[in-house]
Amino acid sequence: MSQTLITKIDAFVEQAIKLQLDQIGRPPLTTYDPEWPSDCLRGETEPDESIQWLPERQADNNNSCHDMFDRLEQALGYSIHTDLRTWYSRYWSEPLPATSEWGDLSLLFLWSDKDCERLRGNLVGHLLTKQKQKQPATLFFACTEPDGEKFISIDNQTGEIWLEQPGKKPIMKLADSLALFLDMLTPKTIPDLEQ
Predict the structure, then answer these.
(1) What is the phi/psi pair of residue 132, to 5°?
(2) What is the pLDDT of residue 195?
(3) d(CA 49, CA 75)
(4) H-type helices in 24-164, by residue range?
């Protein structure tokens, strides 16, 4: 696990939280769903009511993500890049918005242990499509905004960061590593996710 990457992830999340509290004066809101609990939630409320949330650091001994990646590797027959493992094993969170020289994007995270299986299914589908198209294996961790039509991924072999469009070859290399990519981002305030 890269200590530099961990430091960069922590710094970005801390900046995002500070920006939110400085500009909005409170954590963002989401709709409480008792079927979808998370350590991110702040306080208590009734189902379908608004509740505040903030990114929450995962426990170092959280095995849900590690087990999920181990099973993913067994199914695929190869190792998943350590930067992606580190990314999804560091924080519980809703997507965090950011801006960059390429435009706005949302950084994807896991909401809870329960969310690990959904991510595994999405990654398997993505990787099988890449394999079928005889393209290098990439693993997504962000999507473009406001359309979400493109995504940002890690090349599983090199660790490089690429802009991609579903079903096509990577469009453009954005950075040599996830740590360097995070240096190019500026957090934005987090929108409320009320329904």
Answers:
(1) -60, -35
(2) 53
(3) 39
(4) 63-76, 82-88, 115-132
pLDDT in tens, 44-62: 888 889 999 999 999 877 7
Which residues, in sequence order, are CB contacts of 190 under 8 Å at separation 6+? 16, 20, 24, 28, 94, 96, 97
Distance CA 130, CA 146 (A): 25
The CATH architecture one would assign to domain 3-187 is 3-Layer(aba) Sandwich (3.40)
Query: Which of the four pLDDT bands, split at 50, 70 and 90, describes residue 148?
Result: confident
Query: What does the pLDDT look like over 154-173, one tens digit per residue?
Result: 999 999 999 999 888 889 99
CA distance 139 to 162: 10
Residue 97 main-chain phi, psi, to 5 deg: -80, 150
Domain ranges of the chain: 3-187
pLDDT above 60: residue 42: yes
